[in-house]
Amino acid sequence: MDTTKMTISLFEALCHLIVLMLSLGQGIHSMPVPTDIPMCTASETAQYSLTFTGKWTQAAFPKQYPRYRPPAQWSNLIGVTHSSDFHMWQRNEFASNGVREFTEKGEAWTLVKEVETAGERIQSVYGILSAPAVVGGTGQMNTEFEVFARHSFLSFIVRIVPSPDWFVGVDSIDLCDGDHWKENVSVDLFPYDAGTDSGFTFSSPNFETIPQDKITQITSSFPSHPANSFFYPRLKHLPPIAKVTLTKIKKTNKIISLPMEPTQSNQLPTGNEIEDKLINTPLDCEVSVWSPWGLCKGKCGESGVQHRTRYIIMHPANNGAACPLLEEERKCFPDNCL
């Protein structure tokens, strides 16, 4: 669109651009400002510290827990502060190309460009933030960011590593409460499927989803497939796999850095930084189907014995159901006796 030839007002141009982005249905989603969301009237900006805590332990998630090549870990965090008419990602909506690349490969370039472009076009984005990757399933990462009344919302995304296209994150947390800022916000995080790769397990090979699915939350029963790494049919709900804590801090002139590389210092929390009790998710034994019955062994004219077997697919853990018998026998009469 050639803006030098436009004769309509700036407000009309903004409306046209929003309608155009909605009609395309691609990239970062932007919607008209909802009228039912309370207006933030806080007079000053606010600065927050963000602490992401991984809770991805083998005790809480024993099924197919990644221990090597690579072990369980978290990507760097990519976030954005924005207004209510912007979405970095949304449940039950299609992931953008940037979200696809980030959740599948951990590449943030396209996602950051999408956010920057949206900020330039519709001025819904205030700032981009990042925190370093966590080298482990139970580490922490920290960063700081600033918000103000026009852009009081926070969204972010963190990739689950390894995984096909799974991630955790938040979509549009409002840190403003009328005319003041919230002091503390804590949110338990659960896994999401970006809908771009059809792998069932943490280490599944690339298997593109065609056509692309919408972003969905992964639960203990969805996807309803025993091969899925998060499938725990005995549980009503999955335990949280991570947690984010946002704490309002005194405003300073400190420049917020955007670290992108993993650091060893954030690998393991110390003291009481993880306050939750250890979760032990029961994992029941899984066995294969029975093999065909073997040959009948015995003397002609007399009853014999034949066997069939099955093998263990998944060993039990955390007081899960024990494995059943792996071998059966029954009486039979030999065939083709001479």
Automatic annotation (TrEMBL):
Gene3D superfamilies: F-spondin domain (2.60.40.2130), Thrombospondin type-1 (TSP1) repeat (2.20.100.10). PROSITE patterns: SPONDIN, TSP1. One of its GO terms (biological process) is innate immune response. GO terms for molecular function: metal ion binding. It is found in: Secreted, Extracellular space, Extracellular matrix. Residues 1-30 form the signal peptide. Keywords: Calcium, Cell adhesion, Disulfide bond, Extracellular matrix, Glycoprotein, Immunity, Innate immunity, Metal-binding, Secreted, Signal. Pfam families: Spond_N (PF06468), TSP1_spondin (PF19028). Residues 36-226 form the Spondin domain. The keyword Protein biosynthesis does not apply. Monomer. Interacts with integrin. This is Spondin-2. It comes from Haplochromis burtoni (Burton's mouthbrooder).
